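User: Hi! Is it possible to get a structure for several chains at once, not just one? Here's what I have:
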Amino acid sequence: MEHEAATAAHSSLLWLIPAFPFLGMLINGLMRRRMPEKAAGILASAAMLGAFLVSLLVFLDLRALPHHGRALTQTIYTWFAVGDFHVDVSFLADPLSAVMILVVSGVGFLIHVYSIGYMKGDPGAVRYFTYLNLFAFFMLTLVLADNYLLMFVGWEGVGLCSYLLIGFWYTDYEKALAGNKAFIVNRIGDFGFILGILLMFATFGSVEYGTVFDRAAGFPYGSAVITAITLLLFLGATGKSAQLPLYVWLPDAMAGPTPVSALIHAATMVTAGVYMVARSNLLYSLAPVSLTVVAAVGAFTALFAATIGLTQFDIKKVLAYSTVSQLGYMFLGCGVAAFGAGIFHLMTHAFFKALLFLGSGSVIHAMDHYFHHAGIKSNAQDMRYMGGLRKHLPSTYWTMLVGCLAIAGIPGLSGFFSKDEILWKTFASGNYGLWIIAVITSGLTAFYMFRLLYMTFHGDFRSAKGHDHPHESPRVMTVPLMILAGLSVVGGWVGIPHVLGGGNQFEMWLEPVFERGQEIAALAHAGEHGGATELLTMLFVTLVGLSGIGLAYLFYLRQPKLPEKVAAGAGPLYGLVYNKYYVDEIYDAGVVQPLKATSNHFLWRFFDVKIVDGLVNGTARVMTEFGTGVRKIQTGQVQNYALAFAVGVVVIILAFVL
Amino acid sequence: MEAFFFLLLAVVSIFSGLMVILQKSPVASVLFLVLTLVCVAALFVMLSAPFIAAIQVIIYAGAIMVLFLFVLMLLNLQRFTEGAWSRFQITGVVVAAVLAVVTALLLRAVPLPADSGFLRETPGLGSVEAVGLSLFTEYLLPFEIASFLLLAGIIGAVILSRRRP
Amino acid sequence: MDLSRFNLITIATPLVLGAGVLLVMLVDLLSGRANRRPAQLAALAVVLAAAAVCLATWNTGGVSFFGQVSGDGFASFFNLIFLAVAFLVILAGPAYLERNAIHFGEYYSLVLVSVMGMAFMAAGTNLLVIFLGLETMSLALYVLAGFNPARQSSNEASLKYLLLGSFATGFLVFGIALVYGQIGSTDLARFSAYLAGAGDPFAGYMGAGVALLLIGLTFKMAVVPFHFWSPDVYDGAPTVVSAFMSAAPKAAAFAAALRIFYAPAESLGLPWERILWILAALTMTVGNLSALNQASIKRMLAYSSVAHAGYLLLGILAGNELGAAGILFYLASYVFMNVGAFTVAWMVNRRGEGRYDLGDFAQLGFRRPLLAAMMSVFMLGLIGIPPLAGFFGKLYVFTAAVQAGYVWLVVIAVLNSAVSVFYYLRVMVIMYMRENEALKDVDRIPATFAAVAACALMVILLGLIPGSVLDVARAAVASMP
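Assistant: Yes, the chains can be modeled jointly so their relative placement is included. Here is the combined structure:
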């Protein structure tokens, strides 16, 4: 493992993984006009399936290798060489990237299939699939790259595709501004990222993972330059993975088609930052300050986004804030040097969040069609107009229920294991403050997810008109949901902790990648067998999650929708019902409103609008002012130009003479 | 003696050069330009380059200036009517003066190498034979490129004089 | 007489172009009043023939014509760049010229004659040849800038360019005269030998000579403070001409600068470094800041090309092999981005010639997605986002400057690149984000579209194989006598 790149075996398969979606993109892109919409969808999905199958083969190849020699590389060609600095277009499949390519191509394939149904009848469907395949190409390049520069290419590429797809349906000015924000905010992050790469190159003379890590290992613990590099890289990660303070673009990015939100803004692209931090685990482990920053930013983002999630009515916005919050968890995991736990949560999150997004897409799809047929002008994403959809969308309901249970951390489901591992590692590493924040977040998560579920699927349908009702989505959409639901259940079983009698194979699998970093961070296997303490915290966290669900049940299901009717029918029970309503009022006044006020007025209005937006716009304005000043010299008068010319001549000549 | 003539010619050519841009009547400007060119031609004679001096007089002072005069008369331009000196003119004078001073500063008084252009004594440098020989040997290529330069000029003249829609 | 001194191989490419100019004029004359197609086809054929000749004679001709020119790989490399630009603007041009009712055959002969001048600038090993090449190029450009006599802005552009260009030429000629006065020759080999041998390189007339030569060339590169003409001229000139002017002449000016200053750069010492340092820093900063809030895409691109001249100066300042080869690579990618961007600019112009508003790009991402994607490639390339060609151009040139010890200047350059992101991305933001202003649709012009597509492909391709192209550029630089 010491010299991963040197001993890595060669594989001639790796190039195929990004090549499949690239080919799909090329065919769909070039045949845009002649391509039937359905064929485009099938082609794009087939390309993803191809990538997935090759990824599977690569995975099996890796498994066949000895534990510490699990790395396959393929160099396509030498990209460029300057001096003694050369960069290859070269791919690396090790346990970490194997997980990533399986998730990206697997979940990506399901979302592509789902999109066939979702985009049916859309005039831009072929273009949509072209972009989607292009995205997959860049994403796979990002995770397969064996150096930071190629990773950056993927990083920029996925950003571009994300941007193209956010604006896919742009109709109004607000969405235009949203896309703008996404772009500018990401640019800030990317600037940090590229600076980090430059500094890395200046320090280590290479950007290739193996070389960089080997050389970094010779640096002292806490080295300032590595701290700077890792912080700059992390700035890039906060942009791409929507963390404080650069998270603002993600909720706005929901303007795109829902499968895009599922693929790009939940399952894959936004996790690129987590992947990058995990990939650079050795560097981060050498920089305790950076690790602390990562952990703190992760934990605070998790809590912060979760509180906002409580107040949203747009079904996709809830999921968006939830994604921001869960990404915070992943960073928290990485920040306490539990990189394996972060990646574990990345994987399970990809399953259940993709599921939830696709489920919400199915709901929106149904609502949209319903509104269209019933002639109602309304917002198909607003949960206040939903309710009782369980009857009409049974497959969607059941699968989404699984997703909600998984994200809420109900034992046995995937989210439980991955979230628990992060929480336990946080606890075991002694970060009790962060642990408390994470536990609170866990409760809030359970609450708002079930609030979403209840408001959408339970109770009465609040947009009823005549006998018409929303209809379940076609099988091409529900089957991917079911598969993802299955994955959301079993996806965590690969990482059952020892304390529950599991083998935690997932951590074992990733061990070769994170070993060195964790050894330095002195956290290797800390509290691995925490025994009773681990079980106790697990139980506690589970109870917090359950009480979150219970509270949601209380507030959103048991609360009567039509108090007068209940009052009239129940007579003496009125007081109690009223009291319940009163409880809701108390809750509303005591919990929701203050939270809302804080999140709305302070966090959102002030922090988001004033500080974050202000910074973004302010920078642009200052630059523009400069420009105006400089432009004043450009008068259009030849005489002025000649004058400036002559002055320039005088100065240059003087410089030569003096 | 040589120095005297040089100084005389230099002063006259600079003076008439200034008059070219200071005159309000375009015809007078052109005539001063002729004077400048003649002075330069005389300087060529002093450098023992009679052929170039002759060419200078025939082509520049003769043909081109006559063309200028014709154009001016055809256009029937009035005198430039301009009152006080404009801001541009004042700054122009200042900058020109600074430029002249600075350029003079540049010319460091250092003994020139023996083969420098200023000191090279080539017998018959400016004679017809010498010019012809160098034009058809060493400078054949620049000579030919110049013909394309003129071609570009001709095409340009055709374009610019095309009837305006 | 020894005819072997006139090795025509060394000037094969400009020779084909020169003959081509005459051929195109003849074809245009013979092909009736209203039909310019034969002239265009003839011009394309001439460019292709010249390119074929250029490839066939790659680095085969040595120094010839009494040391006036060198038909080395350096000249071949630049010839290919010039010819590519000429091909693209000849291919793309007719639609624009038709639209403005200025489709005259002279367009083609002027482009060809100007490229011929550039070829001599790149091949010249004598100041006189470089000067004549530069003048041939410039004269054609002055006329091309005023190619639309009906538009006042076009006339104004032409006149401004002519006046300031002549002003700059005056300095250049004076510089050549001073150099000649000092060393008795305009031969570049003698020039660098003198500078290498002299104790004080700027003794006598040499300081002024070198300074004025530099000024004459930096004018053509549009380096601050000699850049003022470029935004006005690019803006006023017909846009096909702006595309041509912003790309090829800049490349030619850098070719000439490398010819003159690459070999003796080391012996020029501190004043030279100081001046170039300041010019480079000033040029990129002023160019970028001025580009920030331009409403007209043409002016924005004009300032952007000023900024790029600043980045390119780093390669000259570095004075090492990588710097020079980096400039070659940079220019090879830059011309495609600029020609592409200017061409898209006039393709999408929907408010008439007078107004090149950035708003023209509104919704382009949805109405003409491919065109918008290609424009994005140009913008991202100009920013220097990997893996597009623009990134590697910057990488090579900046690395060369770092190797030569100009770390702070590179920091300034990187910061400038960051600033440039704002205005390049604005185009993309408008294309994909801005509200539809009910503008009329963008015409579909197959030939022009093909030219733009070729530019985009080159920007991507050069980014995929920068290593091999740089090797060719290195060999080209090494082949200079």
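DSSP finds six helices and no strands in chain B. Chain B touches chain C at residues 103, 106-108, 110, 112-113, 115-120, 137-142, 145-146, 148-149, 151-153, 155-156, 158-160, 162, 164-165 (CB under 8 Å).

User: Great, thank you!
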